[in-house]
Structures are given as structure tokens and as C-alpha cells.
Design goal:
homodimer; 84 residues; Arc Repressor Mutant, subunit A; two-stranded antiparallel ribbon; globular; DNA-binding
DNA sequence: TAAAAATACTCCATAGGTATTTTAT
DNA sequence: ATAAAATACCTATGGAGTATTTTTA
């Protein structure tokens, strides 16, 4: 389970929209779809479901999003203070 | 900055011994040396210094180890509960 | 001289891209 | 008819291995 995939998922979860998330992340949409799929396989649990043309979060997807809301900022705070 | 490298560093930091850490992690010693080096480049700060035949942590290495002590268990707790 | 880490390569897995197809409004 | 996601395929980067060379107690 790698950080980048967790960050990717978090962005998708916030926007509930794969294409917009991909734009924000500056990657192609299929790359993002694949990354989420691979995370779902790693965790062995679905994170997204199609709802209409867009996507929605599964129950575990919501849980993971909430966890990441706490964890990701802690990780971002790890880096040595950047130059002024 | 990827999780695996942070976990690798954490193991090295705990043991203060690259070869033993590599054994614990079931990877080859040069692979671990490279991973740490690449993390140091990403963070743009040294984490390890040679001390005698072994290694020791830099000031930032100690700081990072302490941060990871808190963060890594939170990440491990993310995974959906495993079957009994 | 022996134990540990660093360097030099080689290889392969996968992250990411483009093109296209499927799904649903 | 159009917007979004999924699938198919290809490529290149870097993670990991083996072999070897420093380093130092």
C-alpha cells in the first residue's frame, strides 16, 4: 500500500469524480482509474462504485477517506522545513 | 516519498545496522542501501552516517524515526480487518 | 582478515501514457 | 450526443537482485 495511491484515492474521494481528480493530480484518467483499482486489490475491498456517470464511495471508501484526512497531513509534516 | 522506503528506513533506524535490517525485511543489502539513499535524496537531508563498521542516525534521522513510530501504526490500522 | 556498507551492473514489474470502447444521461 | 469511466496496449523508470569493491575494527 503506497502513499501515492492513497493520495490519489483521497483526491478522488474528495471530488467524487475521477476525471477532475486526474486533472488536479496532473495524470491521465486511465492511470488514475488503474491506481484506484490496484489499491482496491491490495486492500481487497471496493472503494468506489459507479453512480450514474460519476462515482460514489463505498462504506469502506468513506472510512478510508476519513482516516487519510488525519494521516496524510502528518506525513506531509515529515519533510524537513523548506527554505524560505 | 513512498511508504515502503519509510518502513525500510524505520527498520534500519531501529537496528542501526543495514545488513541485519535487510535480512529482517527479506531484501538484499544493496537494495536497502539504495532505498535509503533515494529517500535521503528525496528529503534532501542525510539520514545515516557511517560510524565505525556500522551506521548511526543523523539528527534528522532520529527525528524521522520518532515521527514514524507514531505514523506507521496508524497506516497499518487502515487495512480492513483481516479474517479470523 | 573479517564484517559491514557502498558501488556497478542487469533485469523486470509496474506506474503512467495514448487510443479506444463502454456506460449512462 | 455527450460526458465519464473502463479497457487495451505500450513504454520507461526505478526497485531489487548478484557480483564486487571499499572501508574499518
Amino acid at each position: 500500500m503506497e502513499l501515492q495511491k492513497l493520495r490519489y484515492f483521497y483526491k478522488v474521494a474528495c471530488l467524487e469524480h475521477v476525471t477532475k481528480a486526474a486533472e488536479d493530480l496532473n495524470i491521465a484518467q486511465p492511470a488514475l482509474t488503474q491506481a484506484i483499482k490496484s489499491l482496491e486489490e491490495e486492500l481487497d475491498v471496493p472503494l468506489l462504485v459507479k453512480r450514474g456517470r460519476n462515482i460514489a464511495l463505498t462504506e469502506y471508501g468513506v472510512y478510508l477517506k476519513n482516516k487519510l484526512e488525519v494521516i496524510l497531513p502528518q506525513i506531509d509534516a515529515i519533510a524537513p522545513s523548506s527554505p524560505c
